[in-house]
Design a protein that fits this description.
The strands form two sheets. A six-stranded mixed sheet has the order 3-4-8-7-5-6. It has a two-stranded antiparallel ribbon with strand order 1-2. The protein has four helices and eight strands. With about 150 residues, the chain is of the alpha/beta class.
Length: about 150
């Protein structure tokens, strides 16, 4: 709680965020994230540890974004994204990439190791891609209109 200049008492309400790392990204603890994933509007989960780490185990529903933020194109709807990273991984480029598209960016505190230590499940994806219909996405207008379509759906 903070007292304003007018003497009114202000109550600050926000997501339970443990602290802000040096890169300026607030962290979220595993239990809070697990509860948030069960809400009507869960955050987008993006695993930025690389292909091998992703295949060894990640949180169900996380996208494998690789390690280079320049190679990942978020949609422009914005929202909230939680980055799954190694504890010592620099996420400045990822924060900037998502912020440019209107996202609020959080980092999973302790990465998958802390998630697992909290008794929460990890899974090893069989494929390295997202199956259609499992994750909402938007194809930017004009991207597909440049060429003849490979397949037409009625």
């Amino acid at each position: 709680m903070i007292r304003s200049r007018t003497g009114l008492l202000l109550v600050l309400c926000c997501l339970p965020v443990a602290f802000v790392r040096a890169g300026g990204i607030p962290t979220i603890d595993p239990q809070t994230l697990a509860a948030w994933l069960n809400q009507d509007a869960p955050p987008l989960l993006v695993d930025v540890r690389g292909h091998d780490a992703y295949r060894q185990g990640t949180i169900v529903g996380a996208l494998n974004a690789g390690t280079d933020p320049a190679g990942f194109l978020p949609d422009s709807r914005g929202g909230v994204v939680v980055l799954i990273a190694n504890p010592d991984q620099d996420l400045k480029g990822w924060r900037e990439r998502f912020a440019d598209y209107g996202y609020r960016v959080y980092r999973l505190r302790g990465g998958p190791a802390e998630w697992r230590a909290a008794g929460l499940p990890l899974h090893a994806p069989e494929e390295n891609f997202v199956k259609p219909g499992t994750v909402p996405f938007v194809i930017p207008r004009g991207l597909c209109e440049m060429n003849e379509p490979a397949e037409v759906f009625d």
